[in-house]
Specification:
Helices cover about 40% and strands about 10% of the residues. By secondary structure, the protein is an alpha/beta fold. The strands form six sheets. The chain has a seven-stranded mixed beta sheet with strand order 13-12-14-15-17-16-22, sandwiched between helices. A six-stranded parallel beta sheet has the order 2-1-3-4-8-7, sandwiched between helices. Strands 19-21-20-23-24 form a five-stranded mixed beta sheet, sandwiched between helices. The termini are far apart. Helix 1 packs parallel to helix 11 and helix 5 runs parallel beside helix 6 (about 195-205). The chain has four domains: about 15-340, Rossmann fold (3-Layer(aba) Sandwich); about 370-450, no CATH class; about 460-655, Thiamin diphosphate (ThDP)-binding fold, Pyr/PP domains (Rossmann fold); about 670-800, Rossmann fold (3-Layer(aba) Sandwich).
Length: about 800
């Protein structure tokens, strides 16, 4: 059984003294980091700075109850906490400030995130999981206010799930579910909907979560009274306070940011509630100061009056902590014992400054060495070709005059020099070109790698296993295929669970999970409230802790509620940590062509453009959907799978190898061969395209029909170009709006696959109207491409080239 902070605090006075002085020193080090960090920005050595000064004491208290296996989901003010749990050093703090791309020196993001965005590395270099129970864990921070909250819910719920769910390797992720998820948020950000949705869900689910609200009275320049219905968030949350005997609600603790002893007590109680009773806790930390203002972008003197500034100076946490230490005394065996003298604390202050300065110096020198080494490897090669063009001498002189040089300056010099010597074939230029290719590959890895998995488990590596059919294979409703496949999945993968609106008791609105809750229990097949953003958040957090969640969003239209979390959080997890973390959640949804403004939209272009980093899979039927689930559960990429909403009652032949067959990502399928025109589509529109292709055959036009199946990744082997090479005509048919997914598909085919070389006619896109689809079957007919639309527009393409053979229809 894991112990709590309260249960381990019987220590000697000397140990107590050492602990207090250690906290004071760490607080001073953190403060000096903030001070020096700001100076580094204002002197031009870094681009931007946002710091945690003023929040040192509550973060020191929070760190004391943070144990191995615990997780934090926070925001960019928590540098003292990160220092206290050994997730940050002075050197790595400044390395991030300088955007050092070394994972060793800046392990949180390898220079991809601005300072203050903390993370620990959950993965080994090969992408496999570390033992997360043997380390203190920080899920990678994001800047969007309150965007860290939905993920926090999933991190906390994972502990509750691990109390009953065990699988091979689960001991690396949890010790009997005793871990807490800690969240931090600025007071003003509690005005965001994500905060309320997350806290509401946590109170309903009763998960071990501790949320700290740092309340400094402002949201940048806007005072708290203008942020919410009540200035005091604890008062506003009073209705969430749990009642005795009820398994709902949370505990609310309010404490002052400068009261060290009260902070220790507050976090000790918070841990006790969360770890021992699995109750969510809100710690409202009030009277927080912000000595340097919001960030380096401006000064808080612009919006704080003299009285407020004087109060902040007096009630600075470190000032009050120093007073408390100096005023503390206790009699032991007739002798008065004190913690420290003023001189001793002054000495700690000076030592903290030296420590920070030394760390900053080391970080700057290491960062600069990378650039110096780059220059020394490139400049002599540029010098070697300066005789080949007089302009190169000027480029070199301009480069040498730069006071501070960045990588971009080096690359600019090389590229300008290569441009100036274009058409020249010399050994010296070839040597520079070779060096350019070499250093470009390094920086491509530094700045553009790990958008998708680069491990052996990436989705592209999952081998195709075709469905097996026999004489005994039955024709069943499509929903039966996906339901029975889920049955095999839950049996095969005990770490897999599904949750969403109506997903549990009734087996989802289309019966694709019929009977699964009864068979596998409410933990693994669960109903949720109507709260899409936190359904996604549950998935992100659970997947970060080794579970394989399927987060169900009832309709594709409703995924818009999730799009912020998909775009800012899930899609960037691997990228913003340079392969240090992953969250292989599967988002299950259903959509495409049905009837009505709110249940038949196809916002695919928005998903594609905003969620690069997530696989987007669009199966044309439920057998294909089942195969994609089987594929993705062998992968460590996140994915959204869009089932066809109008396919659940259509008959499909059920494969004999349910749970085993896979559909490869990034692979198209030719569903009808043809010679005259290539028709490219996906999802439910495929059925209508097939009907149109049959009609075109009657008109003497042989159409080849291609089902894309996977939008991201898209046709990895360029098979569509081969089809266009054969037919010399291309039509992309899509139910998204004009310039939406059809534009993406066209760009992939014409630009990336270079299929424009084979075209004898202009490429054609047939898309939906720009408005939402109107209600009923007639609404679908007049809102989205119909068989008639397709036949007429494709026929017109042939009429243009041979009007005698294909006379005009209209």
């Amino acid at each position: 059984m894991q112990t709590t902070y309260i249960e381990t605090q019987q220590i000697s006075f000397q140990d107590f003294k050492n602990q207090i002085l250690g906290d004071y020193k760490l607080g001073r080090v953190s403060r000096e980091m903030s001070y020096l960090g700001r100076r580094e920005v204002l002197t031009g050595k870094a681009k931007f700075g946002i710091f945690g000064d003023g929040k040192e004491l509550p973060q020191l208290a929070m760190a004391k109850v943070f144990k191995n296996g615990d997780f934090r989901s926070g925001y960019y003010r928590d540098q003292t906490f990160a220092l206290a749990v050994d997730a940050l050093t002075v050197e790595s703090f400044f390395a991030q400030l300088y955007a050092d791309t070394s994972v060793e020196r800046e392990p949180a993001s390898a220079g991809r995130q601005m300072n203050g965005h903390f993370a620990t590395r959950s993965l080994n270099e090969d992408g496999s999981w570390k033992d997360l129970t043997a380390q203190k864990n920080i899920s990678s921070d994001i800047s969007p206010t309150a965007g860290q909250m939905p993920r926090l819910l999933g991190l906390a719920q994972a502990s509750k799930i691990y109390k009953s769910v065990k699988f091979d390797g689960s001991e690396k992720f949890s010790k009997d579910g005793n871990e807490i998820a800690f969240g931090t948020i600025g007071d003003a950000s509690t005005a965001e909907g994500h905060f309320w949705e997350t806290l509401n869900a946590a109170c309903a689910l009763q998960v071990p979560m501790v949320v700290s609200i740092w309340d400094d009275g402002y949201g940048i320049s806007v005072p708290t009274k203008n942020q919410r219905a009540k200035a005091d968030i604890a008062e506003m949350l009073s209705g969430f306070q749990r009642k005795e005997g009820e398994a709902q609600g949370c505990e609310i603790i309010q404490v002052k940011a400068w009261d060290y002893a009260a902070l220790l007590d507050a976090y000790a109680r918070a841990e006790q509630f969360a770890r021992m009773e699995s109750v969510p806790v809100v710690v409202h930390v009030i009277e927080v100061t912000q000595p340097q203002g919001h960030s380096t972008s401006g000064s808080h003197e612009r919006y704080k009056n003299e009285e407020r500034l004087a109060w902040e100076s007096q009630f600075d946490g470190l000032v009050k902590f120093k007073e408390w230490i100096l005023n503390y005394s206790i009699e032991i065996d007739g002798k008065e014992e004190v913690l420290a003298t003023a001189e001793e604390l002054d000495s700690i202050d000076e030592e903290a400054k030296k420590t920070v300065k030394a760390g900053q110096k080391q970080a700057w020198e290491s960062y600069q060495k990378t650039i110096i080494d780059l220059i020394s490897s490139v400049l002599p090669l540029v010098e070697n070709i300066k005789g080949q063009n007089t302009e190169i001498e000027n480029y070199i002189n301009q480069f040498n005059k730069l006071v501070s040089k960045a990588k971009k300056d080096v690359f600019h010099l090389v590229r300008k020099s290569l441009l100036a010597t274009r058409g020249t074939n010399s050994a010296e230029r070839n040597q520079l070109m070779q060096k350019y290719n070499e250093i470009f590959e390094v920086e491509k890895d530094n700045y553009s790698s790990h958008l998708y998995s680069q491990s052996q488990w990436k989705a592209e590596n999952v081998q195709e296993i075709k469905p097996i059919y026999s004489d005994a294979s039955e024709d069943v409703d499509g929903r039966v295929v996906v339901r029975n496949n889920f049955d095999k999945i839950f049996e095969k993968y005990p770490e897999t669970l599904v949750f969403g609106e109506d997903a549990g008791n009734i087996g989802d609105v289309n019966q694709g999970l019929e009977g699964m809750q009864e068979k596998y229990g409410e933990v693994r097949v669960a109903d949720t409230g109507i709260r899409e953003a936190t359904i996604l958040g549950q998935g992100i957090g659970m997947a970060m802790r080794g579970l394989r969640p399927i987060a169900e969003i009832q309709y594709l239209d409703y995924i818009l509620y999730c799009l912020q979390g998909m775009s800012d959080d899930l899609a960037t997890v691997q990228y913003r940590t340079k392969g240090g973390q992953k969250s292989p959640v599967i988002i299950r949804t259903r959509g495409h062509r049905l009837e009505g403004v709110w249940h038949s939209g196809s916002p695919m272009a928005g998903i594609l453009n905003l969620s690069k980093g997530i696989l987007v899979l669009v199966p044309r039927n439920l057998t294909k959907a089942a195969g994609f689930y089987n594929t993705m559960l062998q992968s460590d990429d996140p994915a959204v799978i869009v089932e066809c909403l109008n396919g659940y009652r259509l008959k499909e032949k059920q494969p004999d190898n349910l749970g085993e067959f896979t559909v490869p990502v990034g692979k198209i399928e030719v569903t009808k061969e043809g010679a005259d025109v290539t028709l490219v589509t996906y999802g439910s529109t495929w059925r209508i395209v097939m009907e149109a292709a049959e009609e075109l055959e009657k008109l003497g036009i042989s159409a080849e029909v291609i089902d894309v199946q996977s939008l991201i990744p898209f046709d990895l082997t360029h098979e569509i170009a081969e089809s266009v090479k054969k037919t010399n005509r291309l039509v992309v048919i899509d139910e998204d709006v004009e310039g939406g997914t059809s534009a993406f598909i066209l760009q992939q085919i014409l630009e990336k696959q270079k299929a424009f070389r084979f075209l004898d006619s202009d490429p054609l896109t047939i898309s939906a109207n720009d408005h939402r689809p109107a209600y009923a079957s007639d609404g679908d007919y007049f809102s989205k491409p119909s068989t008639d639309d397709m036949v007429e527009k494709i026929y017109a393409m042939f009429n243009e080239t041979n009007p005698q053979k294909y006379p005009a229809i209209f």
